Structure formats: structure tokens, C-alpha cells
Amino acid sequence: MSPLKRNKLNKIRFELDKLDNYLIKIIKKRTNLVKKVLSLKEKKSEIVDQKRIQFILKNIRKKSFKNKIDPKITNSIWKNMIWTYIDYERRNFKKK
User: Fold this and answer.
1) Inter-residue contact 93 to 44 (CB < 8 Å)
2) What is the domain partition of the chain in residue ranges?
């Protein structure tokens, strides 16, 4: 790789690292909201809400097209995030 391309690559990676730091803050905020949702659930069976999941994925698909993002990317990210939080809720569910 030429020095010029290496320099460009490093600048892009720096921007990616900054974006990752921002995403960590957003994930923390989302996790706190999920904790609040979990505290309202009375039964473990309330953790998975298929209608809500389908609603979210449908909206993400629409937003992906609107923003010219490959919907396979966003669908994969959101599915993974949803099921990761479901796992988190299952591990942290406390009977009342």
C-alpha cells in the first residue's frame, strides 16, 4: 500500500474508532432502557414479544431503504441486538 493510501486508511480508521466510541454510549443508554423495561415485566414469558420484534425489523427495513443502507446489514445488526438483549433479560429476570 502506498504511503498516501496508508494515510487515508488511517484517517478513516480514526473516524471509525470515534464512531465506535459514540456507539458504546448509545448501547449503554439502550441497556439502561432495557433494564427499565425488564423491571416492568412480571413473567419470564413476557420477555420475547414476537409482534414487537417484527414491528422493529419492519421499521428498520423501511429506514434502511430510505437512508440507502443495505437492509441485510441493518437486519442482521438489529436481529443480533434484539436477541442479545433477550438473552440479557432472561439472565437478569427476577420474579416479583
Assistant:
1) yes
2) 3-92
